[in-house]
Task: structure prediction
Amino acid sequence: MNEEHLARIQAIAEAALLAAGKPLSVEQLRELFTEDDRPPRQVMEHALVLLEKACEGRGFELRKVASGYRLQVREEFAPWVARLFEEKPQRYSRALLETLSLIAYRQPITRGEIEDIRGVTVSSNIIRTLLEREWVRVVGHRDVPGRPAMYATTKQFLDYFNLTGLDELPPLSEVRDLDEIGREIEKNMQGEIQFESSQGERVSQGDPQDAPTASPEQTLH
Amino acid sequence: MNEEHLARIQAIAEAALLAAGKPLSVEQLRELFTEDDRPPRQVMEHALVLLEKACEGRGFELRKVASGYRLQVREEFAPWVARLFEEKPQRYSRALLETLSLIAYRQPITRGEIEDIRGVTVSSNIIRTLLEREWVRVVGHRDVPGRPAMYATTKQFLDYFNLTGLDELPPLSEVRDLDEIGREIEKNMQGEIQFESSQGERVSQGDPQDAPTASPEQTLH
Amino acid sequence: MTDKPEELAKAPSKSGEQVPLALVSGKPLVDMPKDLYIPPDALAVFLESFEGPLDLLLYLIRRQNMNILEIDVSEITRQYMEYIGAVESMRFELAAEYLVMAATLAEIKSRMLLPRQDTEDDEELDPRAELIRRLQQYERFKKAAEDIDQMPRMERDIFSGSAALPKMPSSQPHPEVDMKELLLALHGVLKRADLFTSHHVEKERLSTRERMSHILSVLQGDRFVTFESLFTIEEGRLGVVVSFLAVLELVKEQLIEIVQAEVLGPIHVRTRSAS
Result:
């Protein structure tokens, strides 16, 4: 085994683990290579040992966990990293709430189906946030090209909203009568939006907080 | 500045950037330290230079984008990493991309102005998608009947496309001045002068009307 | 600015693969037609692949290697009208913008036939110059859009790196959501999608939907599950009915399949996607 080749496998493993942000098994890492290029299991394991060494003295480390390997921020830096998340989260975007409500009422539903109803693409961040909050989960894959994931709500979702079952959600016919409270809340929301857009002249100023709408990803990533 | 101390700042920066999974500004990185421990701006920048070097030959790199620094997978490894994700990356329609490019190069711009140039109506879904992805935002309203919203691109747009500023966008092709076109047409119609086409010469002539927008950062900064 | 006409309507893709515009009579239509004749089936597809009248005009100009600044208005007008006429005779819906452009072209053409009047004030714009200006203007942004599409971007060429968090001193707070907000969001999206007009949604029992999700998660993976195991007797009659309705709905939506190897043999269920 050529050293240069090994270094390349190591770099690809590192790249994949960082992009995944979750544990990957040796098999999953090997699957990233095309068949005629796929390193044997032993070679991949050797590359991971090298990667572990290469992380010494850095901000992160390679950890072996039940489902494979993952790159993790070193615990000694937790006090600094924790300050990243100290700020109060903003509110969820309208897009996220619409997506969540469609999953609740139309589950199991794929991202494409949500997009069809909303008429707008759904960003991966929204799905990720909902999965991370454990309000939705993947319950299978639709048997169409691309095998898209089907989403459904979880028990945690019901718990959060104090429901024992989905049938306790208001029926759609009641949702239709929301026009009244709707107008009220919308008025409030528009007040906020207008306030934000009146800061338009600051386009060039380097203020990371002046994104127009609340973006949960910013605080929650 | 003690070398060991610098190495520690570098490791903390790396840990924070990987924990955030999104760009952080030098200021945000400095904020992670307590007041009596906070490295001066210059020191933090120096640590980032060291971090950039320390990523050479690895699976990821430090990249400066509009809203700060980001650790990201090296582009050369994208083909392997892309296999991690079941879903294909989203494609964007021509209508969306044309609308986006008009907002990017001509900001601030109203929907009506976009429609004038494209010669077709812009669907509300396109604008909504762009707003939801936080690539564009409303920066004000034009003071004409109907007070239409003016759109501009955001830092998130630049981040998404790996840019630090609008001036890194590919240059717009030149457009020739209307008067000049008029004169040439006249010449042709009168048949006085046979038109020699020498494209290069014409293109090199600047367009006084369009000059400011050709370099979009001028409208922003 | 030197797009070959064939390239005009192709979806730009990083990998350079050709994406067919559509399937026409089962065959993929990859290239734009090189001549004026378009098979009737392809006409709607053809027109849909343009982003409006300016895009269509640019295509006609580029196809003949004409310089935008020297366009032969009468020839372009003739071709443009031919397309519009063909579309109209097929009774396809035609966007108003195309008709406005047809009128503009007709006006330019007629003006060019008239003797030129020498007027003192040159205020009035030559309509041809105005058309050229619009075409140029559109073409540069069309090109810019293609450039933007080719630029490296997140989730396709760039992946941001993130590492798992260690044990943290405090947990991050999540945003609070009120049920009212959630319902309001649903109200908004349904209103937009005009789903209230459909009775389909209202009739659906949410408990059935919930059970569908549950059954799907039980069936995850390749395994077969016996039909009986999907029911919990303790839930009583109503629970069994809900489960049964959920199974029927899942079969209807082609999400699961029911297999019985022999007459009176055990019935098994599994997800369709596992096959």
Notes: DSSP finds eleven helices and five strands in chain A. The first strand of chain A starts at residue 60 and ends at 65. Chain A touches chain B through 57 residues (CB under 8 Å).
